[in-house]
Amino acid sequence: MRTAFVSLRLVNFRYLWYSQIASFTGMQMQQVARGLLAYQLTGSYAAVGVVMMAWGIPQTLFSLVGGAVADRVNRRNIILIVQFGTGGLSLLTAFLILIGVISIPILFVMGLFQGTLFAFNMPARQAYLAELVPQSELMNAIALNNMAMNATRIVGPALAGIVIAVWDISAAYFLQSFLYLFVIYFMFRLPPSTGHLRGNARRSVVAEIGEGLSYVRNSPTLRLLIMMAFIPTILGMPYMTLLPGFAVDELGQGAGSYGFMFTVTGVGAIVGSLAIASLTGYPRKPLLQIGAGLGWGASLLGLGLLARQFGYPGALVALCALGLFSTTYQTLNNTMVMAATDEAYYGRVMSIYMLTFSVFPLVAGPMGVVADHLSATTTFVLLGAGILVFVVGVFTLNSRYALSDERALAPEGAAGADAAG
User: Fold this and answer.
1) Is 415 within 8 Å of 219 (Cβ atoms)?
2) In total, how many domains does the chain have?
3) Whose CB among 5, 123, 366, 417 lies 3.0–4.6 Å from 70's, allowing a Cys bridge?
4) Quick check: 273 pLDDT over 50?
5) CA pair distance 110, 30, nearest whole angstrom
6) pLDDT of residue 308
7) Quick check: 360 pLDDT over 70?
8) Residue 173 and residue 97 in contact, taking contact as beta carbons nearer than 8 Å
9) Which domain holds residue 348?
10) The pTM is what?
11) DSSP 96
C-alpha cells in the first residue's frame, strides 16, 4: 500500500486531484437530487431515464469534437470554461426549483447543456492528467483520480440526502454551485497545458477527428479495449437511473436511504481504486480486468436477486460489490487505453473512449421502460447476466490477449496487434 499514493507527491497532480474531488462531489449531489426530483415530478422510471438521456445526447454528438479540441487547445483552459458553465447551470436550476417553475422539460434542457459541457471536459481532463505524471505512474494516477471520484460517491450522496432532508432539493443545487468555486481555484494554480503543441501541423477539426478514428481503427488493441469499455458500460451503468424508484417503490425507503445506497457503492469503489493504485507494477492487467468484469456482472445480477430475497440489506451488499468490481474494471480499461495510445492522440482517443459513457444515458430511457413493465430487480438480473456472457465471450475469443502482460499494450509495438488480433 506504500505505492498506492505515490503520484500525490507531484504538486500539480495534487491540485488536479483536489479539483476532481470538488467537481465530482457536486456532480454526485446533483445525480441524487436530479433523479429524486424527476421521480417526484412524475412517479415514473421512464421519466428519470429521459432526463438522463438529455445528458447523454450531446455527449454522443460532441465527444469526438471535444477530443479534437483537446489535442489542439490549452486543456487547462477547456476545463476552466466547463467548470464555470457547469456551476452556472447548477445555480440557475436551484433558482428555478426555488420559485416553483421546474419541470421535466426544463430538466431535459439543462441536461442537454450539461452534457455538452461534459463532452469537452472529460477528454481534456484525461489528456491533461497524462501530461502531469510520468508514464510509469499513469495507472497509479488514474486509479487515484478514480478513487477521488468514488470517494465523492460516499460524500456527495450522503451530503445531498442530508441537505434535501433538512432543507429541500434546491439547497443541494445551491451547494453544488458553491463547490465549483473550489474547482476553479485549484485549476488556476495549475500550469497551462502543452500537449496541444505536440504532434503534426494542425488541420481542420473534422480532419483531426477522422485521423483519430483511423488511429483507433488501425490498432487491434485499442479496438478491443474500447469494445470492452462499451458493452459493460451500456449494460452495467443504467442501474443508477433505476435506483430512485427502486429505493422508494420496491424497497420502501426514503430519500436518506436512497442517498446511502450511493454511499455504499462508493465504499466498494474506493476499495477497488486503492487496490488498483497499489498494483501499478502488476503485469497481468488484461487477465485482472477479465476477473473484474466477471465480478461486475455477478454483483449486478446479485443486486436483483439479493434485493428480492433480503430486501434493503441485500441490496446494500450487492451495491458495495458492484462499486468495487465496476471501478476496478473501468480503471484498468482506462489505464490500458492510455498505455496503448501515442501522446499526440490522447485527446481524440479519450473522446472515443468517453463515447461509451455518453451512450449509456441514451439507454437509460429504454431501460426505464423495461423496469416499468418488469420491475427494477428483474432488469438488474438481466443486465448482470448480459455482462457475464460478454466477458466470457471476450476471454474465449481473445484468450491470447487476456493472458498477455502489459507489454502487449505498446502503441506501436507488434505485440499489441498480435495479442489482440
Assistant:
1) no
2) 1
3) 123
4) yes
5) 12
6) 85
7) no
8) yes
9) 6-190+205-420
10) 0.69
11) H
